[in-house]
Amino acid sequence: MYLSQFYVFDGDKPVPLTIRNYTQEDFDQLVQIQSECFPPPFPSELWWNKEQLNNHVRYFPEGALCIEVNGELAGSLTGLCVNFDPNHMEHTWEDITDEGYIKNHDPNGDTLYIVDISVRPKYRKLGLGKQMMQAMYHVVIQKKLVRLLGGGRMPGYHKVVNTMTPDQYLQGVLAGNLKDPVITFLLRCGRVPIGIIKDYLDDEESCNYAALMEWKNPFIIE
Ligand SMILES: CC(C)(COP(=O)(O)OP(=O)(O)OC[C@H]1O[C@@H](n2cnc3c(N)ncnc32)[C@H](O)[C@@H]1OP(=O)(O)O)[C@@H](O)C(=O)NCCC(=O)NCCS
């Protein structure tokens, strides 16, 4: 299981944090965090319910991470293991995560797939999301998996949908000409885009597109 305690900086002020696995006692707070992180137009049916959270803890507890700041829950990061074939990249969030229920978790899978990351709005831009992602990279290394993978929403895309294809948008973010709240964050976490997926998730802001973002285990060279 995972436990790490250290500091992030809020300006010049060190703020103590804990990254650990979440348990049943955290579920109420985790649902509350989802409602703060995915406001309308994001569909509220896609927020966590207790059955999904129970499954995360039951099927793959190592992939159920949360972060606490000053004793308050500030965010979570959840994954499952799947077998991923880079020659068949097309999938939907619903299919690959079993709609967030992760009953398809494969203990022999080679890929840690991210189901969700959320950081409470009042705790954003402190480095908490990045620190949780680093923690999940540790899990990938510890379990000797090939990669961490996930579909990154691109919520800024709807603003330019009339003038740019999703690929042009992603290239614009990669060139540094555009910033996206999720894709730029994932790039800064060390994730690399390997393709665009259409109809990934019911997500108006991203026009249902996602960029498939990979982090490869540096100790496994294929
Ligand atoms: C995406 C999210 C998890 C980021 O969490 P966070 O804790 O604020 O991110 P961090 O502070 O760790 O940021 C890490 C890096 O990403 C950058 N970053 C974070 N949010 C950003 C944004 N909105 N735009 C551009 N860059 C951003 C930071 O500047 C930082 O860069 P640095 O490491 O070079 O200093 C958070 O905004 C969130 O919960 N969003 C809503 C839920 C969501 O859409 N999740 C993704 C589902 S696919």
Secondary structure: elements and pairs:
Elements (H helix, E strand, L loop, with lengths): L2 E8 L2 E9 L5 H11 L12 H10 L4 E6 L2 E11 L10 H5 L13 E9 L8 H15 L4 E7 L12 H10 L7 H6 L3 E6 L12 E7 L6
Parallel strand pairs: 5-6
Antiparallel strand pairs: 1-2, 2-3, 3-4, 4-5, 6-8, 7-8
The structure holds coenzyme A.
Keywords for this structure?
binds coenzyme A, alpha+beta, 26% helix, 222 residues, globular
Verbal overview:
By secondary structure, the chain is of the alpha+beta class. The protein has a single domain (3-216), classed as Gcn5-related N-acetyltransferase (GNAT) (Aminopeptidase). 26% of the residues lie in helices and 28% in strands. The protein is built from six helices and eight strands. It has helices spanning 27-37, 50-59, 93-97, 128-142, 166-175, 183-188; strands at 3-10, 13-21, 64-69, 72-82, 111-119, 147-153, 192-197, 210-216. It has an eight-stranded mixed beta sheet with strand order 1-2-3-4-5-6-8-7, sandwiched between helices. A hairpin with a 2-residue loop joins strand 1 (3-10) and strand 2. It is globular. It binds coenzyme A. Coenzyme A is lined by residues 37, 117-119, 124-130, 152-153, 179, 181-182, 184-185, 188. Coenzyme A binds at residues 37, 117-119, 124-130, 152-153, 179, 181-182, 184-185, 188.
